[in-house]
Amino acid sequence: MLENIFSQYNDLALLVLRAALGIILIRHGWPKLKSENLKNFSDWLGGIGFPLPMFWAVVVAVVEFFGGLGLILGLLTFWINLLVVIQFLVILFVVNRKKSFAEKEFDLLIFAVALALMFLGSGYWSFDSYFSLLF
After folding, report:
1. Quick one: which of 110, 117, 111 has its CA closest to 11?
2. Which ranges of the chain would DSSP assign to H, the alpha helix?
3. Which of 100, 101, 108 has its CA nearest to residue 84?
4. Which of 8, 42, 91, 107 is the most buried (most CB within 10 A)?
5. Does the model's pTM come out above 0.85?
């Protein structure tokens, strides 16, 4: 019964999830875009064994910042979330593989929200819906 009452708010729920994830991604991506921070992030990636660390540092910064903006707008939601899912699989199983579960909870939550949004779509309140973009 309550499910029927609240089902009319599904699109609003998707907007809230997109906005929350977008804000978190922007918050983490914006500082990385600054040249000194990007260099430091690249050095850190190289230090943990990533090949082409500057390339991956730029990719992560762009996905986080511009992907976050896209999620807030509901633009290219499927593709942005696919990139975030891939990024957080690497974070969970490569970067943080030796950390305890408690230390991975936030990363797991971001992964789960991105995966859910990837499957559920952006909802009515989005540019994807406005422009009838399937993906």
Report:
1. 117
2. 2-6, 10-33, 35-47, 53-73, 77-90, 101-120, 127-130
3. 108
4. 42
5. yes
Is residue 88 classed as helix, strand or coil in its secondary structure? helix
Which two structure tokens, joined as six digits, stand for 2? 């309550």
Q: How far is CA 11 from CA 1, 28, 78, 121, in A?
A: 19, 26, 15, 10
pLDDT in tens, the chain (135 residues): 666 777 888 999 999 999 999 999 999 999 999 999 999 999 999 999 999 999 999 999 999 999 999 999 999 999 999 999 999 999 999 999 999 999 999 999 999 999 999 999 999 999 999 988 765
Cβ(71)–Cβ(21) below 8 Å: yes
Torsion angle (degrees, nearest 10) of CA 78, 79, 82, 86: -170
Please list, in sequence order, all residues whose beta carbon lies within 8 angstroms of the beta carbon of residue 16, skipping any fewer than 6 positions away: none
Q: Are 67 and 24 in contact (CB under 8 A)?
A: no
Which helix (DSSP H) or strand (DSSP E) does residue 13 occupy?
A: helix 10-33
